[in-house]
Automatic annotation (TrEMBL):
It comes from Viridothelium virens (Speckled blister lichen). One of its GO terms (molecular function) is phosphatase activity. Residues 1-18 form the signal peptide. The keyword Transmembrane helix applies. It holds the Pfam family His_Phos_2. This is Phosphoglycerate mutase-like protein. SUPFAM superfamilies: Phosphoglycerate mutase-like (SSF53254). Gene3D superfamilies: Phosphoglycerate mutase-like (3.40.50.1240). Keywords: Membrane, Signal, Transmembrane, Transmembrane helix. InterPro entries: His_Pase_clade-2, His_PPase_superfam, Histidine_acid_phosphatase. The keyword Amino-acid biosynthesis does not apply. PANTHER family: ACID PHOSPHATASE-RELATED (PTHR11567), PHOSPHOGLYCERATE MUTASE-LIKE PROTEIN (PTHR11567:SF142).
Length: 468
C-alpha cells in the first residue's frame, strides 16, 4: 500500500503538470498477450496486438498528438521525424511485433492528404496503406528468441548473471518453498500433466506452470473443466509463487550481476535523456526513446532502484503491455533557444502495470527508496549511476565474460567503478560532469540484456508468501 506521504507527493505531482514542459521521454515496454512459452513457438495473439496498439494510442494522446496532455516539446505530431524517435527490440517475433503494433498506435497512418508527394514532373504519388508510416525497429544484440525460451537468463549472455541466478536454486528460501509447496503443485497435475511430466510439476517451474494456466484461462474455454481445482485462491497462489520465484531470479541485493538486465536499462534511460539535453539546439534531435523487452528487466530494475520500498507490488512480474517511463521536464519557461539551466531540469519515474492504458494512467513512484517523485537531473544521474552499467568494458567486467567482444578487456585491471560494482557499492557509468553523461557510452553488447528465466503475467504479489 502506498504511504500517506507518498500519496500526497503523487497528488502534488499531478496538479503541477499544467506548468511543466516535457523535453524528452524514455520508455521500456513489455510485449502484449502471447501464446504459452511451454508450447513454442510463442506468438503474439490478436489480443496482444490489440493491447500494444491501444498502448501506442494512449501514449500518442499523452506525448505526441498536437493536443497531447503532456506534449513533448518539439516532437513532430503527425508525420514522424525519424531522428526524433529511437525504437529497439530483441530479435524475437513477439517483442518485435509488439513494438510494431505499438508504433501503429503512436504514429498512425496519415491518410491521403498528408501521405502523398508531388514529383518534379508534376505528378503525385500517394503512400500505400493510406499513408502507413514506416518506423525502423533496431535489433538489440542479445535477448533474441527470448519468448520461445523458458530459461531466459541465457539470452543475456552474461556469465556471472546466469551463475548468480542459479545460486537461487541452492538458497534456503528456494529449498524451503520447493518442499513446502510440493503438495500444492501435485494437486495441479490433472490440469497440466499433458504438458509437464511428474518430475517437472514443482516450484522449480513455478513460472512456466503459471504461464500455461494463465494463457489457458484467457484463451481456452476447456480450462473451466478444472474449475474445482483452479479456484480463485489457487490461481492467486500459483501467481504469487511464480512472482516470488522470478523476483529472486532477477535480483539479489548482495549479487549485483544478477540484475544486469535492469542495470543496462538504467544506463540506456540516462544516456537517451542525456542525448536529448546535449542535442537541445537541434530540432531533429532525440525526443522519444522506446525499447521493448522481457519482464526480468523490469524486476531487476525494480530491485536496483529500490522501488519495492514504494510499493510491495514491485516484487511481482509486470503484466503484459506494462511500461516503465522516465520523463525529462522543466517547470520554467523555455528560452528562445536551447534548454533552461540543468538546475531547472527534472526527471520523474512512472509505471503503468498492464494492458489498461486506455482506462488508467501511469503512476508516479519515487526512485531510490526516497519520497521525492520529481528529481533534479543531477540527482537522478547520481542515483542511477550507483548501479547502471553503460559501457562494454563495464558489462564485460561485471559479467566476467572474456571471449568475443570482451576479449579486449580480459587482461585489463578493473577500474575503480567496476571494482566497486562487484562489491555492491557505487558502480556503472562514471560520474557525469555537470550532470551529463557523455555521448560515448557504448551499449553494443548489452542493449538487449532483457532476460531472466521464464515469463509471467501479473504484478500482484506480497512480500510474505501465503503457502497452502
Amino acid at each position: 500500500m502506498v504511504s500517506r506521504t507518498l500519496a500526497l507527493a503523487l497528488f502534488s505531482a499531478s496538479i503541477s503538470h499544467a506548468a511543466e514542459t516535457v523535453l524528452g521521454v524514455y520508455m521500456f515496454h513489455r510485449h502484449g498477450d502471447r501464446t504459452a512459452k511451454q508450447t513454442p513457438p510463442a506468438n503474439l495473439t490478436d489480443l496482444g496486438y490489440t493491447e500494444v496498439y491501444h498502448s501506442g494510442q494512449y501514449y500518442r494522446s499523452r506525448y505526441v498528438a498536437s493536443d497531447a496532455s503532456l506534449k513533448i516539446s518539439g516532437l513532430n505530431s503527425d508525420i514522424v521525424l525519424q531522428s526524433q524517435i529511437a525504437v529497439s527490440a530483441p530479435s524475437d517475433t513477439v517483442l518485435q511485433n509488439s513494438a510494431q503494433g505499438f508504433l501503429q498506435g503512436l504514429y498512425p497512418a496519415v491518410g491521403a492528404q498528408l501521405g502523398n508527394e508531388t514529383l518534379a514532373n508534376g505528378s503525385s504519388v500517394q503512400a500505400p496503406l493510406n499513408g502507413y508510416q514506416l518506423i525502423p525497429i533496431a535489433l538489440t544484440p542479445s535477448g533474441g528468441g527470448s519468448e520461445d525460451s523458458s530459461w531466459l537468463q541465457s539470452a543475456s549472455g552474461c556469465y556471472n548473471s546466469i551463475t548468480s541466478s542459479n545460486n537461487y536454486f541452492t538458497s534456503a528460501d528456494y529449498q524451503s518453498l520447493f518442499k513446502s509447496t510440493s503438495g500444492f503443485y501435485d494437486s495441479l497435475t490433472p490440469v497440466i500433466n499433458r504438458t509437464f511430466n511428474a518430475s517437472q510439476i514443482n516450484y522449480k517451474n513455478a513460472y512456466t506452470i503459471f504461464d500455461l494456466i494463465n494463457v489457458a484461462e484467457i484463451h481456452n474455454s476447456s480450462i473451466h473443466a478444472f474449475d474445482n481445482i483452479l479456484t480463485n485462491d489457487t490461481l492467486f497462489q500459483i501467481r504469487t509463487l511464480a512472482d516470488h520465484h522470478e523476483f529472486n531470479l532477477a535480483y539479489n541485493v548482495s549479487e549485483p550481476a544478477r540484475a544486469i538486465a535492469g542495470a543496462t536499462v538504467a544506463a540506456q534511460a540516462v544516456q537517451y535523456l542525456n542525448n536529448t539535453i546535449t542535442a537541445n539546439n537541434n530540432f531533429s534531435g532525440p525526443r522519444l526513446g522506446i525499447q521493448f523487452g522481457a519482464y526480468n528487466s523490469f524486476q531487476s530494475f525494480f530491485g536496483l532502484a529500490n522501488l519495492t520500498a514504494a510499493s510491495e507490488d514491485f516484487y511481482g512480474v509486470p503484466d503484459y503491455a506494462s511500461v516503465m517511463i522516465w520523463e525529462l521536464f522543466t517547470n520554467t519557461t523555455l528560452p528562445s533557444s536551447g534548454l533552461p539551466p540543468q538546475d531547472d531540469l527534472y526527471v520523474r519515474f512512472l509505471f503503468n502495470n498492464g494492458t489498461s492504458a486506455t482506462t488508467t494512467v501511469p503512476q508516479v513512484y519515487p526512485l531510490f527508496g526516497g519520497n521525492a517523485v520529481d528529481l533534479k537531473w543531477t540527482d537522478f544521474v547520481t542515483g542511477m549511476n550507483k548501479f547502471a552499467v553503460g559501457t562494454t568494458q563495464q558489462w564485460c567486467q561485471t559479467c566476467g565474460n572474456i571471449t568475443g567482444t570482451c576479449a579486449q578487456f580480459a587482461s585489463t585491471p578493473s577500474s575503480s567503478s567496476s571494482s566497486s560494482h562487484s562489491s555492491g557499492n557505487s558502480n556503472g557509468i562514471s560520474t557525469a560532469v555537470g550532470g551529463v553523461i557523455g555521448a560515448m557510452v557504448t551499449l553494443a553488447v548489452i542493449l538487449g540484456a532483457e532476460a531472466l528465466l521464464l515469463l509471467l503475467f501479473g504484478l500482484r504479489v506480497r512480500k510474505k508468501i501465503e503457502l497452502p
